[in-house]
Amino acid sequence: MSLKNDFYTVKETASPLENSVKGLIELNAAHIIYKDHFPEMPVVPGVLQIQIIKELLEDHLNKKLQMVNGDNIKFMGMIIPTQNTLINFELNYTSQNAKILCEARLFCETSVFTKFKGEYKILN
C-alpha cells in the first residue's frame, strides 16, 4: 500500500550531492487516518513516517525496497498535520551488496520530528 498521492504528496525534490535527496512533502490533513489517530488532535503515526521515508527512497532510486533493520529510529516531536502540513525531508544513503543503508530526517524549519537510520533490501 502506497501512501503517496493520498496521505501525502511530493512538492519538490533535489539531489544536491551524490547518494542524497532532499525535498518537501505536503500532508493531507483531511485524510481518514486522523479520525482514529486522534480525532481531537491528529498526529502522524510513527509507522507512517517510516513508510514515507521508504517510499521517498524507493522513488528516488526507482527500486522496490523492504526494510530489514531499523538501527536507530527517534521520534523527536509530533507531526500535527493541522499545524505542519509542509514537511521537509533529507535522505542520505549508501549501497552495499544489494542493500541500501539510509539515514533520514523529517523536519520543519528548526523542528526535527524524526531521525531514522536503517537498512533496506532491494527487491527488484
Description:
By secondary structure, the chain is mostly beta strands. It has one domain: Roll (Thiol Ester Dehydrase, Chain A), CATH 3.10.129. It contains one helix and six strands. The protein has one helix spanning 46-61, and strands spanning 8-14, 20-27, 65-75, 86-96, 99-108, 111-122. Strands 1-2-4-5-6-3 form a six-stranded antiparallel sheet, covered by helices on one side. A hairpin with a 2-residue loop joins strand 4 and strand 5 (99-108). The chain is globular. The chain starts with 7 loop residues before the first strand and ends with a strand. The model has no long low-confidence stretch (mean pLDDT 95).
Instruction: Indicate the multimeric state.
Output: single chain
Q: How many strands, which pairing sense, and closed or not: the largest β-sheet?
A: 6 strands, antiparallel
Approximately how much helix is present in the residues? 10-25%
Strand fraction equals: over 45%
Name its key features:
about 120 residues, mainly beta, Thiol Ester Dehydrase, Chain A, six-stranded antiparallel beta sheet, globular
In short:
The protein is mostly beta strands and 124 residues long.
Topology:
Elements lengths: L7 E7 L5 E8 L18 H16 L3 E11 L10 E11 L2 E10 L2 E12 L2
Antiparallel strand pairs: 1-2, 2-4, 3-6, 4-5, 5-6
